[in-house]
Amino acid sequence: MTLKNKLYIIVPLVASVILIVVFSFLASDFKIVGKDPGEERGVPEIDFRLPNGQNTSLKSLKGTPVLLNFWAAWCEPCLDEMPTLRSLEKIYKKRGLIVLAINIEDVSAEELEPKLQGLKLPENLIFNVSRSQIAAYKLEGIPVTILIDKKGDIKKVFEGPRDWDSAEMLQQLDTLLKD
């Protein structure tokens, strides 16, 4: 076999491998099973206890827009964005937006109290959600924040920390919350 013939085999093979690797990375973005990209996607159920002791779920919040934030106390970017999540919560409370900050660690609020002391935190810090419910979100990193509309569909997924009370984010949320 000549070098030219070998190149006809090797070049397409290498190109195919490169395309597979590239598309694998592109496809590894946040996704929730069951819907095509661009379609509004239903939210996997989460049952949780509010800080006031009330047991509830995302399903029971249907009819209300929800900003669902996944975070951990060991995640500095997560803690850095908490004060702006709190500000956002105050700004949008009149429009009915509920901010839920779900801790992905298997720890209680009491265990994390020393680490969280002095931070401006959202009202609804949620702890001890089952790992299987969190796993349904296929988180590849945190913080991840999901905006859920009144119908219970995902409007937008924000990966990484944000300055939630910045003009840019407020404008984006205004647009996404129009109904």
Question: What does the model show?
Answer:
- Helix content is 36%, strand content 20%.
- It is of the alpha/beta class and 179 residues long.
- It has two domains: 1-30; 31-176, Glutaredoxin (3-Layer(aba) Sandwich), CATH 3.40.30.10.
- The strands form two sheets. It has a six-stranded mixed β-sheet, with helices on one face. The protein has a two-stranded antiparallel ribbon with strand order 2-3.
- The longest helix has 25 residues, at 3-27.
- It is elongated.
Brief characterization of the structure:
This protein is an alpha/beta fold. The protein has helices spanning 3-27, 76-92, 109-116, 131-135, 167-176; strands at 41-42, 47-49, 55-57, 66-71, 98-103, 124-126, 144-148, 153-159. The longest helix has 25 residues, at 3-27.
Secondary structure blueprint with pairings:
Blueprint: H1 3-27, E1 41-42, E2 47-49, E3 55-57, E4 66-71, H2 76-92, E5 98-103, H3 109-116, E6 124-126, H4 131-135, E7 144-148, E8 153-159, H5 167-176
Parallel strand pairs: 4-5, 5-6
Antiparallel strand pairs: 1-8, 2-3, 4-7, 7-8
Highlighted features:
single chain, 179 residues, alpha/beta, Glutaredoxin, 6-stranded mixed sheet, 5 helices, 8 strands
What value does the average pLDDT take?
Answer: 82
Strand order of the largest sheet: 1-8-7-4-5-6
Could you say which structural class the secondary elements and strand pairing correspond to?
Answer: alpha/beta
**Secondary-structure element order, N to C:** HEEEEHEHEHEEH
Helix content: 25-40%
Q: What is the name of the CATH superfamily of the largest domain? A: Glutaredoxin
Query: Which regions are unreliable across 5 or more consecutive residues at pLDDT < 50?
Result: 19-40
Number of strands: 8
What's the Cα radius of gyration? Answer: 20 Å
